Every structure is written in C-alpha cells, then in structure tokens.
C-alpha cells in the first residue's frame, strides 16, 4: 500500500501492483524526467524543490508529520501565502474557497461568514480546513462575504474578505464564442452551427462497411426519444475476442464526421468538447469511444473521450485489475506522448444521463473535466502531460461511437446527446452554464459571434483582444491573410508597422 501525505496530512492511499515495485536501471533525477525514449531530460518541473529525502523503510504517520513540522519550527506565526479569491457560480452548483498558509504546526482553520476581525459574521460549523466548499449554492448564499482565521500556538491571523456571487440559471441558450460543431441529434446528424460538420451513419461488419441512416429503424443505430435534451443518438458495437488481448468488431454502428479542419488542433490550439452521455447501468467494459479521431481509442495518437477501460472484450481479465471502470476517460496523444486521465470509479455508469465537458488548454498545459457542472476528480492512468503530446492531428476522421477504422474491437453501447466542440478553452463559468441551463430550463447552447476588439494601449502600442480562433494579418484588406506567429489574446502590436489589417479565423 502507498500512502500519500500533503503538508503532513494524509490525502489517501493506493494499492501497489500485485507484482511489487518495478525494477529500473534509469538514473534517478530531480526536477526533470524523460517523457519518452529520448535520452534528453525533456520533462521539466516548473517550480522550486527543497529537502529531498529518501528512506529504505516505510515511515509512519508521526514521522511524516514531524518532517513537515520541522520546516517551520515551533515559534513561527501563521502567514498567508495565497489569499482566498472571489467565486461566482450558478445556484445549484458548488463553490469552493481556499487559502494557502504556513507556520508552526498544527494550524487551526476556521471559516466565517463575514469578517471575523470585525466580528460582523459567524463561524461556519465544521469549516475547519484550508478549503470551504458550499454545495449546493442557494440564493441565500448570494451577497455573503467569507473569510478564514488561522491560528497556532504563537498567534492567529485573518484572511481578506471575499464575496460569493450566486447566478440564476440562464434563461436563454448560452452563447459561447468558438463553437465549431453542435450535433443536437434531433432525428438528424446536421451540424447546428451551419459550418457543415455534419455526420454520416455507418455500419461495419466483418466483411463490409456501409452508410446507414439512424432513422431507418435499426435499433443498433437510432434516435431515442428520452434524450437529455429532446432526442438523442444510440450507438453500439459487438466484438469478439480473437485470443489473448486482441478482438475484432463485427457489428459496429457509429457516426463518422470525416476529416474536418475544425477538428485539427495541431500542437497549440485550445479546444473543448461537451456532451451528455448515458451508459448502460452497471457498465464496466472497454473503452468504446464516445468521440475520437484516434485509431485504437485510449493511449493512441489523437484525442479520445471514452469510458475508462475496465473488463473489456480485448482484455476481460486485465492485470493489474482496473480501478476506475464505470468512469470517464480522456486521452490526448501525439507521436506516442501525452496524457491519459481516468475519472472516478463508477461515476457515470448508473444508467442515467451525465454531462461532461473536457477543456484542453494547450497554453496552460492542462486538461480539466467538468462532470455534471462541477470540476471532476481524476487519476493519471498513463503518459505525462498534455504539453508532451505536441501535434495531435491524426489525419483520420472524427468518429462518434467507434474509432476511425470503424472496427475497434470493444463491445459496448451508449446514448449521446448535444455534442459540441469549441476551438477555445471554455472558462469554468461557461462550462457550468452548459449543464445548469439544460437541467434548469432544458436549454441547449448556440454559436456566438467572434469579435476582434482594438484597444489603445499607448501612443505606440495597440492591444487586440478576441475570444477564440487564430489571429491573421495582411497589408491589404482583401488579403491574402497569414497567421500571426505566436499571437495569443490579448496581443500587443506597434502603431509604427504601417497599414496592417487583422482578422480572426476559427
């Protein structure tokens, strides 16, 4: 068993491999690692590290806590390094406030409504850690201010006071810039954005692949009336094990979207994918994709959004046994590098509709998933970071319910609804709005116009701001336009460059 402590406090434990620890001849490194087979140490640690210690025995909890306590001695008063930040979210969803502090341990935390220093609020029962989560937010929480006091044996200190803003559910479909595909599955596979990213129903057998209209009455690829928002699409695959850890799909029903420019994200394009999904109750099988352009599903080059791999057709008795089956999975890979993330065990396999939003921020090097409106916990299943993926374009068609070959050998089925793709990283509030609008007012979402705003920064500098897409420039209003290398909003440019025209392209 492996036990993990953060700041002297236990954060959980995890079972080790049944075969024990893996032996290695790779040199031990601090501050960097090899992300692939390259001999160079290209995976760097962005931060500061101190007091590294390795023991040839398992430390007990008291020793671990003593290590942490020694860093601050016995006479250091609490100091706040990161103050709480204001939070805005919709009624019915959670809001979390946090503080980062250090000093001689133990530190005692107490959150208050109002300003404890002014005695204009009351302490919140049970709110005695460095985080305060209000779940769910109610309209009674609106207008309240929050602060936290931190005390130890030396003295105490108080944080700043921050507000929590509670928003009502949207009364109109959320209009979020950067939307490049929206399949509503209202008895058709038409892209509601008007960009032409329409789908085509397909069926693949052991000997042939053909088109199939989901409205033709085949129960394996059809529209169902009890969608999350109106109608939804049902798809399925039947596969058989060919021996060992290989399998073939024999009756595979899915939707292909083709190789579209809007789904080419290269090495630096931010993107987000949102959808409603309903797995069969108790599903613990393989990773038949929800939406992907990667041949072979998770861990292969491209983007993959799928169930976390459990006891699948290709490997019905995996070793080690999976720990996240019945959850969601995200896989972002390029040239064999990238990241594979698994959501919590059985988090989406109860037979009900669940909303997922995956936000891939290439600039920040993060992949954040929202499950039913809230940030979801995940575990790293394989790989290193999304930044290591580089160019993730595969040249293969984006596909719903299968991989691009149409013959991925994992038995499974699901219902999917309201699939959207944005060429931008959605903000937390935008991601939350998609879920809360649907459950509150049965609203979907719509495209929003892309605006390029010019702001005067100084006499010689201009600032360009845009919500999504790539900035292009030309010396002629009619073009041709070329991408502005390295341009990220907000982008500053000089007024002394002569006549230059700018536009944003999705």
CATH class of the largest domain: Mainly Beta
User: What share of residues is helical?
Assistant: under 10%
- Domain module tally: 4
| DSSP E strands, number | 39
Radius of gyration over alpha carbons?
Answer: 25 Å
Question: In CATH terms, what is the fold-level topology of the largest domain?
Answer: Jelly Rolls
Count of helical stretches = 2
- Share in β-strands: 35-45%
Category by helix and strand content? mainly beta
Average of pLDDT = 91
**Poorly predicted parts:** none
The N- and C-terminal alpha carbons lie at a distance of: 49 Å
Instruction: Please tell me the CATH architecture of the largest domain by its name.
Output: Sandwich
What kind of sheet is the major sheet?
17 strands, antiparallel
Query: What is the general shape?
Result: globular
């Amino acid at each position: 068993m492996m036990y993990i402590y953060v700041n002297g406090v236990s954060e959980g434990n995890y079972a080790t491999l049944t075969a024990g620890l893996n032996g290695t001849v790779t040199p031990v490194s601090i501050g960097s690692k090899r992300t692939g087979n390259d001999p160079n140490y290209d995976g760097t640690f962005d931060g500061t590290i101190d007091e590294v210690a390795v023991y040839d025995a398992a430390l007990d909890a008291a020793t671990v806590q003593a290590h942490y306590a020694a860093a601050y001695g016995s006479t250091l008063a609490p100091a706040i390094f990161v103050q709480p930040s204001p939070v805005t979210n919709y009624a019915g969803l959670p809001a979390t406030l946090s503080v980062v502090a250090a000093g001689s341990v133990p530190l005692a935390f107490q959150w208050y409504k109002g300003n404890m220093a002014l005695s204009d609020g009351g302490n919140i029962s049970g709110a005695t850690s460095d985080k305060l989560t209000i779940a769910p937010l109610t309209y009674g929480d609106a207008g309240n201010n929050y602060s936290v006091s931190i005390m130890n044996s030396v003295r105490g200190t108080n944080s700043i006071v921050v507000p929590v803003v509670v928003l009502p559910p949207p009364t109109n479909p959320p209009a979020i810039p950067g939307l490049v595909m929206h399949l509503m599955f209202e008895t058709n596979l038409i892209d509601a954005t008007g960009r032409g990213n329409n789908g085509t129903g397909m069926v693949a057998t052991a000997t042939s692949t053909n088109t199939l209209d989901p409205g033709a009455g085949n129960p394996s690829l059809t529209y169902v009336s009890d969608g999350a928002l109106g109608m939804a699409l049902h798809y399925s695959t039947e596969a058989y094990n060919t021996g060992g850890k290989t399998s073939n799909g024999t009756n595979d029903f899915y939707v292909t979207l083709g190789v579209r420019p809007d789904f080419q994200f290269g090495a630096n394009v931010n993107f987000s994918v949102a959808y409603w999904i309903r797995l069969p109750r108790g599903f613990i099988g393989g990773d038949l994709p929800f939406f992907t352009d990667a041949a072979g599903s998770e861990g292969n080059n491209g983007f993959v959004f799928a169930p976390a791999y459990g006891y699948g057709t290709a490997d019905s008795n995996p070793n080690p046994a999976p720990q996240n089956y019945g959850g969601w999975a995200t896989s972002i890979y390029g040239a064999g590098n990238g990241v594979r993330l698994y959501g919590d065990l059985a988090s989406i396999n109860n037979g009900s509709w669940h909303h997922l939003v995956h936000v891939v921020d290439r600039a920040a090097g993060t992949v954040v998933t929202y499950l039913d409106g809230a940030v979801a916990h995940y575990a790293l299943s394989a790989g290193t970071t999304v930044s290591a993926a580089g160019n993730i374009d595969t040249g293969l068609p984006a596909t719903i319910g299968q991989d691009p070959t149409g013959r991925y050998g994992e038995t499974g089925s699901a219902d999917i609804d309201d699939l959207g793709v944005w060429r931008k990283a959605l903000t937390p509030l935008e991601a939350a709005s998609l879920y809360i609008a649907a459950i509150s007012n049965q609203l979907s979402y719509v495209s929003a116009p892309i605006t390029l705003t010019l702001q005067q920064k100084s006499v010689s500098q201009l600032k360009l701001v845009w919500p999504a897409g790539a900035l292009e420039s030309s010396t002629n209003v009619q073009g041709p336009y070329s991408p502005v290398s390295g341009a990220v909003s907000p982008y500053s440019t000089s007024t002394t460059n002569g006549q230059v025209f700018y536009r944003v392209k999705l």
